[in-house]
Q: What sequence folds into this?
């Protein structure tokens, strides 16, 4: 099963155009892919996810066997948009040896002593692997944009001001970094989980009301929610400036988790399919060795 090309085009931020987040739904796509019966939407989405999980498992085996490319999936979102659950469900059929998830939290002292891309560069997936960034270097043009005081974490300078060139320069650095990775065999797919403010509130309250989910809530979540408009602006500008032909952004509606997970699974499968990896081939010498091994086993 594959996502329709028209649906992929709708989800993608066309390079050189505005991300247009205000005009994008957090609930559904304009192209109907779950059928017209609302009562069965969730069931259809779950069935599609199962298909994509199976296809991703097979695609990952081809990726591993060819050992010529890597896939990097970058997930960005507001809190409670469903990043962790999406990773868990979409990658449930992938061999753990061929997949690695990196969660980017508050940078360490060592990381602050380097440029803002360093901590991401040192954990990139190797060829044959799928790497998933649960948040990423994009935090440095999102969180740092909303909280510019964080720009001085490496060398605090209370008297400094933020240059008008900081954000355009960082966008350029990111685009160049991703182009370099693409040229060297790493395919990058960036996905923004587009959740509404009302749905985030509902999920926060659910975490607070359920003792088994209290651990998921942090007081900092509420602090960041107060900056919703600032983050919305930062995401709009970032996605617009950094969606490129070699590393496109996809904006996926995230208010309904079952649909979100199916769409992310479909995008991941599409990314590997685009590599057009052939089935692994073995040469004459290897074939002869296999024949000898078979003969030896049969002779026992």
A:
């Amino acid at each position: 099963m594959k996502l329709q090309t028209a649906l992929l085009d709708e989800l993608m931020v066309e390079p050189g155009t505005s991300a247009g987040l205000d005009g994008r739904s957090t609930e559904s796509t304009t192209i109907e892919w779950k059928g017209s019966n609302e009562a069965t939407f969730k069931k259809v989405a779950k069935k599609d996810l199962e298909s994509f999980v199976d296809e991703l498992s097979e695609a990952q085996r081809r990726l591993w066997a060819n050992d010529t490319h890597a896939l990097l999936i970058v997930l960005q979102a507001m809190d409670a948009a469903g990043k962790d659950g999406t990773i868990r469900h979409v990658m449930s059929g992938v061999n753990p040896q061929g997949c690695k998830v990196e969660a980017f939290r508050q940078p360490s002292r060592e990381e602050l002593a380097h440029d803002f891309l360093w901590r991401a560069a040192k954990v990139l997936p190797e060829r044959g692997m799928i790497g998933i960034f649960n948040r990423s270097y994009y935090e440095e043009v999102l969180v740092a944009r909303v909280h510019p005081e964080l720009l001085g974490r490496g060398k605090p300078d209370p008297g400094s001001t933020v240059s008008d060139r900081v954000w355009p320069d960082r966008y350029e650095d990111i685009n160049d970094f991703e182009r370099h990775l693409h040229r060297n065999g790493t395919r990058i797919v960036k996905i923004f989980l587009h959740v509404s403010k009302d749905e985030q509130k509902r999920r926060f309250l659910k975490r607070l009301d359920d003792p088994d989910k209290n651990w998921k809530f942090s007081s900092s979540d509420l602090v960041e929610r107060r900056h919703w408009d600032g983050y919305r602006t930062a995401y709009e500008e970032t996605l617009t400036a950094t969606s490129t032909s070699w590393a496109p952004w996809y904006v996926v509606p995230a208010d309904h988790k079952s649909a979100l997970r199916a769409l992310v699974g479909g995008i991941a499968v599409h990314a590997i399919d685009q590599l057009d990896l052939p089935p692994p081939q073995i040469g004459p010498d290897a074939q002869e060795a296999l024949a000898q091994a078979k003969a030896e086993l049969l002779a026992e």
